[in-house]
Backbone:
């Protein structure tokens, strides 16, 4: 079984070492970087982490800015680990980016428990932690650069399309309800199903050879959508 990849973005070396030593000893694969640009470079070279632990007070890029850039690639769960205890900042972070917020100083076992709790709520797609995600013989996805290769042809994805695809892949074989997709892709906006339908249609046009008879993204009318890893022969209606 592949280890859970944890990306720690923290500029205090002693905190990085404490987290890394503890989490590695408990079966995680931890990478630490001191700032946002290095975090983005790591993701481009090594692929998405399963979860990111991000400080807010980073040297050259605020934790919110880094989180925004990360969320423009994929729906990677984030926990803010910071000395900031301002209620407005915590509320803003939780509404827009993070699954949880832990204030320094903290107990390492509490941090691990929070990581476990977040990961338990979110299905993990092991191969999505590779730089180029190979779905099958025809489809590959590069989330860090918002693009996919389908049948040998490259397509650029919008951030919204990239996040939608990531959520569907993480739940491959299961129907993801419309309300869940909206909550994951637009966490701080009032968005309705018509908007979701429009973005899903655009994603399908890039992903499917025939968007009216899709193989990869199936519609469960009135409920949601399901990603099928292996293309199927029977046809589904598209919205």
Residues:
């Amino acid at each position: 079984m592949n280890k859970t990849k944890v990306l720690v973005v923290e500029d205090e070396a002693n905190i990085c070492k404490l987290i890394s030593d503890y989490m590695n000893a408990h079966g995680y694969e931890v990478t630490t970087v001191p700032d946002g640009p290095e975090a983005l470079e790591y993701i481009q070279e090594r692929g998405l982490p399963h979860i990111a632990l991000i400080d807010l007070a980073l040297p050259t890029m605020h934790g919110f800015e880094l989180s925004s850039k990360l969320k423009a690639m994929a729906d990677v769960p984030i926990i803010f680990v910071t000395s900031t205890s301002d209620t407005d900042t915590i509320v803003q972070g939780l509404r827009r980016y993070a699954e949880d917020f832990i204030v320094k100083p903290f107990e390492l076992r509490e941090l691990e428990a929070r990581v476990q709790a977040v990961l338990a709520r979110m299905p993990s797609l092991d191969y999505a932690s590779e730089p180029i995600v190979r779905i099958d013989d025809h489809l590959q996805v590069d989330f860090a650069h918002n693009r996919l290769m389908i049948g040998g042809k490259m397509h650029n994805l919008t951030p919204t399309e990239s996040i939608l695809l990531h959520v569907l892949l993480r739940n491959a074989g299961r129907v993801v309800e419309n309300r869940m997709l909206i909550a994951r892709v637009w966490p701080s906006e009032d968005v309705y199903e018509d908007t979701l339908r429009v973005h899903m249609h655009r994603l399908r046009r890039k992903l499917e050879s025939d968007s009216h008879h899709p193989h990869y993204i199936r519609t469960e009318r009135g409920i949601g959508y399901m990603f099928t890893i292996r293309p199927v022969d029977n046809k589904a209606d598209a919205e």
